[in-house]
Every structure is written in C-alpha cells, then in structure tokens.
Amino acid sequence: MRAVQIVDYSGPESALRSVELPDPEPVHPMAGPGGGPGVLIDVYAAGVSFPELLQTRGEYQLKPPLPFVPGSEVAGTVVSAPEGSHLAPGDRVAAFCWLGGFAEVAVAPPSMTFRLDGVLDYAQGAGLILNYHTAYFALVTRGRLVEGETVLVHGAAGGVGTAALQIAKGLGATTVAVVSSDEKEQVARDAGADHVVRSTGAWKDEVLELTGGVDLIIDPVGGDRFTDSLRSLRLGGRLVVVGFTGGSIPEVKVNRLLLKNTEVIGAGWGGYLMEDPKLAGRIATELDRLIEHGFVRPIIGPRFSLDQVSEALLTLDRRTATGKVILDVR
C-alpha cells in the first residue's frame, strides 16, 4: 500500500516520505486493554490536524519510534471487522485510528469506528471525529451547555470552530464567531454563526454590546486574547480551553474568576477518552441525531493528494486553512 511516514523531526517541509508498505494486520494496540482485534479499513479520505503538524517536529505527546505513519482520522470502507463489533465488510465508516491514517489501508479500534451516515461523503467522514467529538466534549461534557445560552467560538472558521458552531446551534444556543477576515466570516456564517466579530478589532467590546456577556466560550486558539475572553463572560460564565493554535499558552490571574464567579475549564478529549472509553460511543450517538436533523455537516476546506501531505500541513502551520483539511487517498 501507499503511505506517508514521518522519518525525522525536521518539520512539515522535510520530515515526510512517501513509501510502499505491506498492508497492516487487523490488530490495534488501543482495541481494549493490552490491544486486540481491530477494524481494517480501505481509506478513501484522511483528515489533517494539528497533532500531525506537531508530530513532524517531535512536539506532540504521542511520540512513536521513527519512522511511523501519522494520521488519526480516516473514512472509507470496512475490509474486515472483529466479531461483535456490529460492523461488516463493505460498511462505510468514519474512524479514529490514532496513528496510521495517512495510508491506503488503516486499522482502527472497534470502539472508535462508526458507520458513516449516507448524507455525508468520505471527506466529511474524515472530518467528523476529531473536530466534532472534541467540540461536543468541550460544549457539553465540560462546558455544560444548555439550550438558550450564548456561546462564543474563537478560531470559528477552523475545523473545531465550525464544528462547535454547528453543534451549539443544534443544541439551541445563540452563537458568536470570532474570525480574522471576510473569507473566514463567510465560513463561520455558513456554519451557523448568529453574530461575527473580528479578532483584529475591539472584539470584546463588540461582544459585550451584542450580548451583555456570553455564557460559554470555546477557545482552541489561546494567545493574547485570553484575558479579553474572561472579560466577555457574564456572571457564572465558563471558558473552555481546547488548544493553543495561536502558539502561546496564556496564563490566568485567578482573581479575575472571583469578579463574576467565572470558570476556566480544560477540555482534553483524548486524555478523557483514555479513562472513559465509552465516551466516543455516547458522543457519536448524539452527533448522529444532529446529523439526522441537518445541523452537523463538516465543512471541507483545502484538499490534497497523499503525496501532498507537506503542503496540507503547511496550510495549518500558516493558519490559512478554513474548514477541515483533507487528504484524498483514493
């Protein structure tokens, strides 16, 4: 099979090599305690995310021995599946394989492999799990979102941002998107933003004027906007930290939390999943409902071939991508 490996930690420009490898065995180390039978998948599309960018520099917590095939999200058809998995050869699926997704054939744990609704294509399937499970986890599991609240989303034109907007709308929230350009504003509005403000302006003042303060903030960006985010919360508001695509990790002066009884909450979906493996199934059930009702439709951004992984990762590194970056594998 064709695949792409990370061979060193020199970054996205030079760390990747196209190779021919044997098809993997249908065994996955995350398939239950100590590993076990996995789902073998013919990959049609793979999602490209920040973890893969960090892996090319050796900066991600999951650091397998070199060389290795990166790629955590895939969509395709089942080649084989373990008994009891409720999957069969030929099923269209979206799967989270942790590693090995940048290849024509991948293996995923049965607990992280889900039938793909017929209204979604393979590219949308490859953009479903990491972003939408993370967004649902941040909004509901950690953020305790309830119908009628107001949600502000930073990085609202990106993969997690568009997912958060769609899910929040589906759960009955009013949504405020923070973006940096006209193009990104349109993407955010397409994802369901009720209000859009520019990160380059006095966005905090605009948000307060529009809403009087928001109930929940989803922040995958971090950086220097963090303090103004806290100031944008209303009494009892929550700020959920998802990541730091802006580069710098902010610090919070905890006295600010006392002023309006606000909270800063971490949302590490992957780490939580390790302790609660059934979480993914519960979230998938809720997302299926939102897909059925037309709220969840992954927004696909730039698309690349398997041989263009470096270019795909550089769109994330340069923060030029909107929506989900996809590799068309077949």
Could you characterize the architecture of this molecule?
There is one protein chain. The chain is an alpha/beta fold and 330 residues long. It has helices spanning 50-55, 122-126, 129-142, 159-170, 182-190, 203-211, 226-231, 255-259, 269-275, 279-292, 309-317, and strands spanning 2-6, 16-20, 27-28, 36-37, 39-48, 73-80, 92-96, 105-108, 113-115, 150-153, 174-179, 195-198, 214-219, 233-241, 263-266, 300-305, 324-328. 29% of the residues lie in helices and 27% in strands. Helix 8 (255-259) links the parallel strand 14 and strand 15. Helix 3 packs across helix 4 and helix 3 (129-142) crosses helix 10. The longest helix has 14 residues, at 129-142. The chain is globular and about 60 Å long. 49% of the residues are buried. The model has no long low-confidence stretch (mean pLDDT 93).
What topology emerges from the helices and strands here?
Blueprint: E1 2-6, E2 16-20, E3 27-28, E4 36-37, E5 39-48, H1 50-55, E6 73-80, E7 92-96, E8 105-108, E9 113-115, H2 122-126, H3 129-142, E10 150-153, H4 159-170, E11 174-179, H5 182-190, E12 195-198, H6 203-211, E13 214-219, H7 226-231, E14 233-241, H8 255-259, E15 263-266, H9 269-275, H10 279-292, E16 300-305, H11 309-317, E17 324-328
Parallel strand pairs: 10-11, 10-13, 11-12, 13-14, 14-15, 16-17
Antiparallel strand pairs: 1-2, 3-4, 5-6, 5-8, 5-17, 6-7, 7-9
Helix pairs in contact: 3-4, 3-10
